[in-house]
Each structure stands twice: as C-alpha cells, then as structure tokens.
Amino acid sequence: MLAVQQLEAGYGESVILRDVTLKVKPGQVVCLLGRNGVGKTTLMKSIMGVLKARKGKVSYKEMDMTRRSPGDRAKQGIGYVPQGREIFAQLSVFENVLLGLEASREKKREIPAAAIAQFPVLPTMYSRRGGDLSGGQQQQLAFARALASEPDMLLLDEPCEGIQPSIVDDIRDVIRLIKADGRTAILLAEQSLEFVKSVGDYFYILEKGSIAWEGGLESLDDEVIRHYLTV
Ligand SMILES: Nc1ncnc2c1ncn2[C@@H]1O[C@H](COP(=O)(O)OP(=O)(O)OP(=O)(O)O)[C@@H](O)[C@H]1O
Fold first, then answer.
1. Mean pLDDT in the chain?
2. Cα-based angle 45, 126, 138 (whole degrees, multiple of 5)
3. CATH class of domain segment(s) 69-193
4. Which residues form the ABC transporter domain (predicted)?
C-alpha cells in the first residue's frame, strides 16, 4: 500500500534521513520507533510531501507520489495527524473538521459520522475556536479532521505526546477500531513502547536517520529495546 524506497531527506545543508526503506500493507498498523531527534517526524513529512525527498521514492497504491504535492497525496487517500496537531487556532472546531473534507477524493458536503463518532465531545464544541481547546481535545480534533477525508492510510505523528492518560486511552481505542475495521492502514510514530505494543503489527526502529531494525511484536524484545530505545 505504502512503500518508501531508499529515501533521503533533510533541511538545508543537513541530511537527516538516509536510505530509508519501509512498507505498510493494507490494514496494517506499522509503528516507527526511535529516540528523540532520529528523524521520525522528518520521515512522516517526507511521506506526506510537506518535505521534498532528495533521493529515493515514495509510492502509494503502486503510484509514484515522490513529486506530488501534499494536497494531491491527501486526495489519493493519505490522512495526516501531524506532531503538535497543527489545529487552526482562529477557526472554529467545526471549520477545522471541514478542512479535512476538502481533502476528500469525492467532493463531500457532510462530515462522515465515523469521523466524529469516537469523539462525542467535539460536536458539543463546534462553535468554539480551535485554539481554545485543551491539548487532548485538539488531538481529538486533529484525528477527526484527518478521518473526515475517509483516508485509507493514516500517518500519526506522536499522537500521545503531552496528552493526559484518559485521552491516550481514547486514542488507543480509536486506533484499535480503525484496525478492526481493516479499511485503513496506519503508520504510527510514537515514543511510548507500551502504547505501540498494544496496537502495532510491525515495527521499524530509526537510528540516526536510517532504519536500524525491523520486525514483528514477538521480536521486539528487551535486548532490542535496550539497544535502540533506552535513553
Ligand atoms: N525544520 C528543521 N530545520 C532544520 N533541522 C530540523 C528541522 N526539523 C527537524 N530538524 C532536525 O532533524 C533531526 C530529526 O528531527 P525529527 O523531528 O525528524 O526527529 P524525531 O525523531 O521526530 O524527534 P522527536 O521524537 O523529538 O519528535 C533533528 O536533529 C532536528 O534537529
């Protein structure tokens, strides 16, 4: 479904990602792990097209996306919940969700019920400004905005960062529901091992901008964790 091949990307003079190759199959939850600053967000941005690849290829559903715009990638069915959420503070909660509809493949007028079903608090806040919501509520809004386009691939960049435990549990439930439904694949960058182990099917570990390890849940043992993830 998603294939990243020998990707190189960076900022200005600095090369951050080198020779990154990974795959996400339909319906799979693939987790991207690694210590702070190894390049997880840079990889997410490169897959979404917010950051241009310098070398290598990003393909989605067998289509070469490497030179396509982020909007184009969204229209092909890639949803993105960026790190830090990037809610439009001055727009209302409703307008923020509507922005997700803009990315839909077909021109839809109504927010799909499934996009907000897991976040019942959001409709009660539709007229409030996005910037007035708490961090956890903003994260729910970022999910709803991404789900409004009914993506079949969802990029989640550290969705639990700075979020209170009850909302983390809600996010876990949403990911599990998406997984059980089987229609949307997920690439999840996350620091919390406990969280990724509870939802992930397959794991990649980034170290200094390259894939240093990959494997299934059973092989993500204490030795791997100590070697690549312990700070
Ligand atoms: N806009 C930018 N300009 C220059 N360098 C950047 C920029 N964004 C990130 N970097 C650098 O790229 C490297 C990788 O950062 P990135 O945010 O991708 O890592 P990460 O694994 O997502 O880290 P974290 O878990 O802390 O979010 C870091 O050294 C960071 O300082």
1. 93
2. 35
3. alpha beta
4. 2-231
Distances (CA, A) of 11 to 6, 15, 70, 212, 229: 17, 7, 17, 21, 24
Of all protein residues, the one whose alpha carbon is nearest to atom 4 of ligand 1 is: 11
pLDDT tens readout for residues 12-28: 999 999 999 999 999 99
Between CA 65 and CA 56 the distance in angstroms is: 11
Domain ranges of the chain: 1-19+47-68, 69-193, 201-231
Q: pTM of whole model > 0.80?
A: yes
User: Is the interface score ipTM higher than 0.90?
Assistant: yes
39 lines ligand 1 (CB under 6 A): yes
Ligand 1 mean position, distance from CA 181 (Å): 33
Question: How many angstroms does the Cα of residue 39 sit away from the middle of ligand 1?
Answer: 6
